[in-house]
Amino acid sequence: MLRLFYRWLLRFHPTRFRERFAEEMLSIFDHVEGRAAAAELVGDAFISLVRQWIMRSEYWEEKATVSVPAGACGLPVFYTLESYKPRKSALIEGAVLTWIVYSALFLAIRHGKVHSVYLPSLSFESAASSEVQLPTSTPNLPPTQARVHPRTQSAAIEARANSSEADRPSLGKPMPSEPNSSARVSVSQEQARLDATGKLGRTITTPPLVQFPSQSVARAKIRKETFHLYVGVYSTDVPNKLTVLVTAQDGRLAIEVPGEQKSMLVHIHGARYAFSEAQDNWIEFMKNGNGAVYGLQISLNGSESRSLRKVN
Amino acid sequence: MKEDLSSFLPLSSATLHILLSLAGDDLHGYGIMREVLRQSQGQYKLGPGTLYDNLQKLIEERLIQELGQRAQDDDPRRRYYRLTSRGRGVLAGEVARLERVVREGKLRLQPANPRRA
Fold this sequence. Notes:
The structure holds 2 protein chains of 2 kinds.
Chain A: H1 2-11, H2 15-31, H3 35-55, H4 88-110, E1 136-137, E2 144-146, H5 150-162, H6 187-197, E3 204-206, E4 209-210, H7 224-230, E5 232-236, E6 242-249, E7 252-256, E8 263-269, E9 272-275, E10 282-287, E11 293-300, E12 303-311
Parallel strand pairs in A: 1-4
Antiparallel strand pairs in A: 2-3, 5-6, 5-12, 6-7, 7-8, 8-9, 9-10, 10-11, 11-12
Helix pairs in contact in A: 1-2, 1-3, 5-6
Chain B: H1 13-24, E1 27-28, H2 29-39, H3 48-60, E2 64-68, E3 80-83, H4 85-109
Antiparallel strand pairs in B: 1-3, 2-3
Helix pairs in contact in B: 1-2, 1-4
């Protein structure tokens, strides 16, 4: 019985060791006398099994033979390095390690806090200017084809063309709060140029601005008259009463939320504004069919709620 | 040109005993185990697992060589091993090192001479 177990243990040794020494080890087992000595050898074989698999990986496989070509006078003309073949276990360990590293990297990227990207600021202060909504869409959407007022369209095109290198979007670089003067457009000059080239009034296909998820902000200065549509007190009734005060300050909208610091609002698109300090937080004003604001939707730290306008 | 064998030193107990047992005669595995037991006066018992693990390493390092089967009436599963000249050089180096250790040990363990007042 012990001999069978001893043989079984030898069978599980690495191939190279087993082929070379197993029979000889078994012959030693056959030569020892006494059950205690045999049991001792079984213990020794078990230790040997663990040692060979854990500590002797370099002896698992036969070494590749090195061929050295001989020259004319019998001397080798060059030496070849031994063909290296990594162990299977090394390949498996490498694969597991790579998977762990990449998983950690992706998790770090996914849950990383700092990945804000800003687009350049644009300002339109001409007589013909109105509330300019820059076309924004997700990168996957097709270009937006729209008939727009030629003056507005040309202003946007010119503003983009004139934006200096410093205004280009860059990672981690906040855009200046004041618009670049080069972005200001003389509409009359632009109209004259378009008249000369015969482009006035033609349908223009505009490529979408690249918008990065939830963080990118294409800011356009809003007319002060528009602010009065939004200024007021908004509150929710149930389940947790939340009162929000929207005010106009220095030509910009501001918001006060209980328990939060007063924050300036940054226009994102339509009636949606982001908190200037925490741009993951945003509000969107809700309008009825007549364009009157009757409430707002607020997203604070990922939780959204709706508030109705109480006081103008 | 004489090869520098100092990189093999110091030897482990098992390696030293195996090389020492093969210094006198070619032996098979079981013979090495018995010879080691005799040399150490029963104090160092080498198991087959440890023995063949060391033999594998010593063959790779060309300190011993395998001779194969020798006697006709012997167990056909037995193989004999012989100390190479390289192995003999390593063993000589280890013995010399141990001699220095023994000499140093004896010096240190001598009773200190009484100091003059």
